[in-house]
Description:
alpha+beta
Amino acid sequence: MEECIFCRIARGEIDSSIVYEDENLVAFNDINPQAPMHVLIIPRMHVSSLLELGADGEQLVGKAHRVAGQIARERGYDRSGFRVVVNCGEDAGQSVPHLHFHVLGGRALGWPPG
Length: 114
Ligand code: DGP
């Protein structure tokens, strides 16, 4: 997994604007933001998608959502609202095969998604 771009970001080998990190997770601004807040939260360990998540990843998914709420709250989006999205596979448009949680906020987000 040395060549996985998100593994490299998590290891600090590629510059990214990191907004949060701990022993399990790294959060950074998306390079192609789709909203005023567009943060990606990734596990440090390589998991290619939700389909590859084992029972050992369950706590990590919960923590990622708690961190998403924390980041949104810090920016005031707890009042206006925000969205957490995981794309899985081709039809969902997953382009990076390392599990990531999109955290979007700062504008009205359409539903259903395109
Ligand atoms: P998805 O389509 O769900 O796989 O989302 C992948 C996201 O990752 C996409 O919104 C763009 C972002 N992205 C891809 N490469 C990089 C990168 O090198 N740095 C940053 N910050 N974001 C990236």
